[in-house]
Structures are given as C-alpha cells and as structure tokens.
Design brief:
Chain lengths: ~325, ~325
C-alpha cells in the first residue's frame, strides 16, 4: 500500500492540485506562493496563502512562544512578498493539547499580535481545537494592483537568476534565522511595481528544492554558478556551506529572474533602493527544461539535485 | 500552572480575541461566525472563516475519507450561511502522518473537490505538512452585499428565537448527520436579504453552548420553551432527547431571532420559500442578560446551563 512517505510532498501536490475545482475569477490557482483572485471592477487583485507551523516540525517545545507566533505570521507575509503584494489580513487556527500551559498560548498570541502590528495586519479571527500537538495554521490575505502579481512561471531563456541576502543554516545551532527572518516585503513590491522580475518566489525549502519549482512552472532549465551562491554566516562556519545553502530551507529570501536587457537598470535601481540588502546573480535560465546544472569554477558541472526539504519524505532532522 | 483544560475554549477566546490588532476596513473582527471586511468602493463585503477538522475529534479513523472532505467544506459553508452570505473560495491546509495511505488522501481530496463543486466554490490551494494526526484546516471566503451581514449581536428584547430543522444526535450510532448535514445556505441568504433576522448564527456546539454566545454578543437574556425545541429523529430514539438536542453539537442548523412585529410576515414568507425546512419558534429574547431560563410546560424553569461542546474542557466522548 502506497503512503505519503513513498511519494513526498511534490508528487502529492502535483497529483492533487490540478483536479481541484476553480471559478472564473481565480486568476492563479494552486501551485504558486499565493493564489490570485481578480474580482470584477476592483483595482486590486487579492492574494491568498496558508501556512502550517507545527511543533517539532517548524519549532521546538523549548522555542519561546512569542517567536513561534512571529514566525507563523512572517511565513505568510513572505508568501505575499513572493508575489510582490502587500499583506492585510490574517486568520489563525490554533490546535493545542488540553494540557498546554495557558502562559504558552498567551505567548503565542502575543507574538502573533506583535507581528501583526509590525506589518500593519489585522487578525480577523480563526478557530481553536484540541489536538495532540501545538499547531498554528495561518491564512494570509493580501492585495496587489490588478495584473501585477509576479508568478513562478514567467522565467524566459537568458533571464538572469538572483537571490536576496544569503542562504543556509537557518536551523543550525546558534542561528535563529528561521525564527527571526525579515520577509522581503519591500523588495518584493519593488520587483513587481518596477516590473523587473519575470518570475519570483520565496525560498522556504532550500534553493535546491525551490528553484526546480520555479523551473517547472516556467518549463525551463538553469545554469547555476556554485561560486556565486551567497552563503550565510551560519553556513560558512560549517564544513559544507554550499550544501547548507542549497538544502537547509527556511531562508525566506526571494528568488527571482530578470531579463538580461534590464540587468544594468535593475542592478542600479536595486542598489539605490536596498543599499543594505544584496541581490546576488547566481545563474541563468536555459530553454531546455531538462538542463539544470550546478557549475563549479574550473571544475565539473553536476546535475541540480532536487534536494532541500520536502514534507513526508525521509530527510535529515531539522 | 493553569492549562487550557482549566479555562476551556470560551474563556480562552474571550481572553485572547479582544487584544488582536485590527485595521479600519475590518467591519466585524473575531467572535462572530465570520469576520466581515469592507473594502472601500466595493458593493460586497467579504466574509472570512476558518475551521479545523481533526481525526478523533471531528471524525474517526474509519470514517470514509470522502465524507471527511465533504464535512470540512460544509463546516465553512455553514459559517458563511450563518452571516447570510455566499461562499466562494476555499483554502486547505493538510496535516498527515507520513504513513498515511495515499488512497486516504486521494479520498479526502475527492470529497473536498465534490463538495466544492456542489456549492460552486473554487479551491485556491493551501499547504501540506507532516504531523502526528490527520487534519484539515479549511479557510472559507464568501461575499455578501455591503452592510447586510447578520451578526450575533443584533437580538433585541422581545425578539422571537427560531431554529431550523431539528436538533441533537449528530454523533449517535447510526446517525451520519455530522458528516452529511446540509448547510443552510439558501435559508441564511433569505434571512439576510429579506432582513428578517436581527441576529443569526449556526449551531455547531449545541444549542446550550451556542445560544449563550448569541446572548452574550447581544447582551440579552432568553426565555426558552423546552417543549418547543425540535428534536431530531436520532435524539427522539434516546432516553434523553432534550439533552441531546441541547448538548450534542454539530447540528449545523441556523439559530436566529426575528422582531415580533415581523412574525406573521416572516412565517408566511418562510413557509413559501422553504416548504420542507421547518423554522421553529423556541423562545423569546429578554432584556436582562442574566435571565436565561429553560421553561417546561406546567413545570419548573431551570437556568440555561452553558452545556454543549467546548474544546479543551473535559467532556463526554464524541
């Protein structure tokens, strides 16, 4: 009997998502960072995303509750940023064992509320239920000027591939990045408003898992330059910084593509707008969707392994 | 150390919800069946609700997966009906153990998709994560003509209290009501469009738990006629049908109040529009919020106990 473990999250979603009913106003259905809904007569499109945050998967029993609440909201904010939009409204489903100390729940909600204030969001409500583990399920709703959401599917051959910030090590001891990351909201809006990005997503499961999703959506390949991939301080302290940058996940940086004809204009405008946040060119989109290689300087080109984090598959502890 | 078990869901929510950040466009925040958002320039208000559906809480391991998917959607539809609105879009967070048979997940999604088609909904997407128990977290979004949503807070002294259908026994052996119920979508719209209902909610945790929520929101009391409460066929087969009608939960009928001056007009219009669905008058709203009594014909009046289902509190098996 086949189980989820046998097929993993990617194949599960590939199987399930195309069969789900849609409606005419749904401009982008399942499969991107957010769904996009276009209501007739509205100047804005609406963006919808959900994110689970589960004890022992996304945080530990000893993680301070306020940081768990913050992380839950920040993940949804990052999904909206990954379309180029502005988040507005949050719903929260809480699951908790009956023996959960009240102080922990208060801490969670204090973290949710503080994060909502930070990003100017309303928490519309939600529901609570008893369950075996502590979980938050966050729904985020955002807006973006009509027709300007940047999808994963827009990358064209020759487009240059960029990432913001530095990658890897979000879960390494002493690194709180997976709890304290800053969703790239202003950067996402900049990329959408200025129409620089042809494709855009956020990095939640690691470059090696997420880039193939962008390539699949765009039906393209890639030439990735290993030496160009920006390594986080935490990753650089390890024996295998590149492995961490490719596979750890929870970077919540933006991954995007820019047409080569806009390269100079984009890089100048970026530096002016984000002097403290690097946007690093790490590769180039190829026409052939089967060509997906990681190039080492003066060394071999290896196939880009679909590593990174995938739910249900057997994987390293995180 | 206080835990959730010590305070229960009602007190938890009363404590947490008022402190959550809001935004100016949020017309109704946490605490009603749906939140209501009023976007400037839009002819419709937007309705938002979330519902968890958790194995061993809302369904059993042996429950057919298609019915679980149906139930998850139907709960969200019922919340939108309880405002008088029309549901449009659904998001689904799936949590499942890695050992879950693929066939069960397929069944769940077949149930979700069939229910979405039945109520003309789009499934916008969602997320999946590994966890210890099978869970669906559903977000439902609906619309309603601007300013016409019927809240829990509108009941006035003298208003008559009605319920649709019959109550109790949704979980009794041989009764599949909690899986097969029909959300009262047309009835909810009728009550809102025709402006008959002064207050409206759906019955998810049992009349004895839900009516006090309407009374709290309206700051009113009630005189409830025990003999008038419509008993389901399943409840009538038991030794204590009234107890089941008050406390079982998952009826997903509508509970609403109507001004006495509209009584005749309402009852005539209802019978014409819903010849097969009774709307039964079960009591009257009182001015004093402390007076909440259940009257027995020729017998005693007993205080309306806040029974019914509440998460986290110790309760009967369901």
């Amino acid at each position: 009997m086949k189980t989820l473990r046998d097929i993993g999250e990617n194949r599960l979603l590939r199987h399930l998502l195309p069969r789900l009913p849609q409606r005419p106003e749904v401009a982008v259905g399942p499969g991107d960072d957010c769904a996009v809904v276009r209501v007739p007569g509205s100047a804005d499109d609406w963006l919808f995303t959900t994110d689970p945050v589960i004890e022992r998967r996304h945080f530990l029993p000893e993680t301070p509750a306020r940081l768990v609440g913050r992380k839950a909201i920040a993940r949804a904010v990052s999904d909206v940023a990954a379309m180029g939009g502005t988040p507005l409204w949050i719903l929260v489903d809480l699951v908790a064992p009956a023996a959960t100390p009240l102080a922990r729940i208060r801490g969670l909600y204090a973290g949710l509320a503080a994060a909502a204030r930070k990003w100017d969001l309303a928490i519309l409500g939600g529901d609570t239920a008893e369950g075996d583990a502590l979980e938050l399920h966050i729904t985020g709703v955002g807006r973006i000027p009509r027709g300007t959401a940047v999808l994963r599917s827009g990358a064209r051959p020759g487009d240059l591939v960029y990432v913001t910030g530095a990658l890897g090590g979000a879960y390494l001891p002493g690194c709180r990045h997976h709890l304290a990351f800053e969703p790239r909201l202003a950067a996402g809006r900049f990329l959408a408003e200025r129409k620089f990005a042809t494709a855009l997503m956020d990095l939640s499961d690691g470059l090696a898992a997420d880039l193939p999703r962008l390539l699949d959506a765009s039906k393209r390949g890639v030439r990735l330059e290993a030496a160009a991939i920006p390594l986080s301080r935490a990753a650089r302290k390890t024996q295998q910084p590149l492995h961490h940058a490719l596979c750890d996940g929870e970077d919540f940086e933006l991954l995007f593509t820019v047409s080569p004809k806009n390269r100079a204009r984009f890089e100048t405008a970026w530096k002016r707008s984000f002097p403290k946040l690097p946007a690093v060119r790490i590769g180039e989109i190829l026409a052939d969707p089967k060509r997906r290689r990681l190039h080492f300087p003066g060394g071999p080109a290896v196939p880009l392994q679909a590593g990174g984090y995938q739910h249900f598959l057997v994987h390293k502890g995180r």
